[in-house]
Structure formats: structure tokens, C-alpha cells
From TrEMBL:
The chain crosses the membrane at residues 37-54, 66-86. Keywords: Cell membrane, Membrane, Transmembrane, Transmembrane helix. InterPro entries: Cyt_c_oxidase_su4_prok. It is found in: Cell membrane. This is Cytochrome C oxidase subunit IV. It is a multi-pass membrane protein. One of its GO terms (cellular component) is plasma membrane.
Amino acid sequence: MNYPASSRLWLWWLWLSGLTLLAALLAEQGLSLGQGALARLVLLLAWVKGFTVIEHYMGLRHAPRWLRLVVHGWLLLVTGLLMMSFC
């Protein structure tokens, strides 16, 4: 059967929900990574989620290259600065 691309959106929702649950679990458990390393790991998961939202839900996969670079650069800048604040 040939399904439209939108029928696979539930897989992306499942991926994003899984990342959210993983980040929440990591933050709740604390592990033995230390607060700074744990915060950076959770921010890395947030970056992956942001990348997924930008590419699949904002429709920038087919946008002009300059627009994709600006949006991805903004996401990288924000998460990078937040990660540096935990050093």
C-alpha cells in the first residue's frame, strides 16, 4: 500500500515523546554524571528534538538553504550558549 507521508507523522511524535521521556528520566534520576554533565546531556537531547521539529514540522527540509542555515544556526547558538553556562 502507498501511504502519504503525513501518515508517518506518528513515528516522529513517538520519537519526540521518547526523547522527552528520556530527558525527564535522566533529570529525575540524576545518575552519577554530576549536575553539569547531566544538564549538557539533557540540552543535547533538546537540540536533537529541536532539529527534528525544524526539519519535519516546520517544513524547512525543502526551504532555501539560507533559511535552513539561519534557523539551525539559531538553535545551535542557543543550545551551545546554554551548554557553556554549565562549564
